[in-house]
Design goal:
single chain; 335 residues; mainly alpha; MetI-like fold; disordered N terminus
């Protein structure tokens, strides 16, 4: 055994002893001696101006993170508490953050008044269709702005960015007139889903300028060698775009899709203006408390309706947050 060990020790990559991890040593039953804490070394490293600055920065960062988290989560927490309260709890001033009796009355009442599941599936179908159209338009337009050179490109891109600065209320009347007399005919599309679909398919939908900007920035960050190698292999523009560029932009496409889906799901401006006859959640939420006269119950029903609208989106982001974070890290940072 000793001869075998001495022979192996002569081999360069086997002769060096590897240090076992702490857990491996514990499993083997051997006693592990930890390095003793040196108080003098710690004072020398931390009790100075540099260490004081690091400590202040850590404390300040902690306060900022906790404060922002509180501002974001507190309204959601309040709505959740109200939704699980009874009619007696919402008028009881001694009830703060924990319902005393507890009930699902407001959840059931809000779902009944909103015709929740019917409105849910209609909203999901419409938001999915709009998000797909906006994603396709943003990918094609963003790639064109990022890679091709043509006259007026900068001016067109400025116009795209200007669409983000124009409030939707300023074009409410022209849009209503255009779609109530579509293409100058007597066809009235207001009240159906087609106006929103047409706007999304033509790059004029809700926040389409932002999606085009995000895709442009991402495509600009991709190396041009990817396209050059595809061109050398005989691929054309369309094949390069669909086979090379889009697969590399999968994370950003997921982010754009989530943005488009979420904003369409919760939008009230375009939906109230063009889809006022449709049975979708954002419109139903406005009239969810129309049959209630008590002010406290009206506020509770409205908070519960908002929670029911937001909850499906939280589930979607829970499963897609990894792609969202990865794409945001790349967007706008690489030129």
């Amino acid at each position: 055994m000793s001869e075998k060990t001495s022979f192996l020790s002569k081999i360069p990559f086997l002769g060096k002893k590897r240090k076992k991890s702490f857990m491996a040593e514990m499993r083997s039953g051997n006693k592990v001696q930890r390095e003793k804490f040196n108080w003098a070394t710690w004072k020398r490293r931390n009790l100075n101006l540099n260490g004081l600055g690091k400590g202040i920065w850590i404390l300040l960062r902690f306060v900022i993170i906790v404060g922002i988290s509180y501002m974001i989560l507190y309204p959601f927490f309040v709505k959740l508490v109200v939704a699980l309260s009874s009619t007696e709890d919402i008028v009881d001033n001694t009830v703060m953050y924990v319902p005393r009796q507890g009930s699902t009355y407001f959840i059931e009442r809000a779902m009944l008044n909103m015709n929740y599941w019917t409105a849910f599936w209609k909203t999901a179908g419409m938001s999915l269709m709009v998000a797909i159209f906006q994603l396709f338009v943003a990918a094609v337009s963003g790639y064109g702005f990022a890679r091709f050179k043509f006259k007026g490109k900068d001016l067109l891109f400025v116009i795209v960015l200007l669409t983000l600065m124009i409030p939707a209320q300023t074009i409410q009347l022209p849009l209503s007139i255009r779609f109530s007399h579509f293409l100058g005919s007597d066809i009235n599309l207001v009240g159906e889903m087609w106006p929103v679909v047409i706007l999304s398919a033509t790059g004029l939908g809700l926040k389409s300028g932002l999606y085009i900007y995000l895709m442009r920035q991402f495509f600009r960050g991709l190396p041009k060698e990817l396209e050059n190698s595809a061109y050398i292999d005989g691929a054309g523009f369309f094949r390069t775009f669909f086979s090379i560029m889009l697969p590399n932009a999968a994370n950003m496409m997921i982010t754009v899709f989530l943005f488009a889906f979420t904003w369409q799901w919760t939008d009230t401006t375009y939906n109230s203006m063009l889809l006022r006859n449709m049975e979708i959640l954002s419109i139903k939420a406005k009239i969810v408390a129309s049959s209630i006269t008590d002010e406290a119950q009206i506020a509770a029903i409205n908070d519960t309706a908002c929670l029911l609208i937001i909850f499906p989106l939280l589930i979607v982001f829970l499963f897609a947050q990894r792609y969202f974070i990865q794409s945001i890290e790349r967007s706008g940072l690489v030129e």
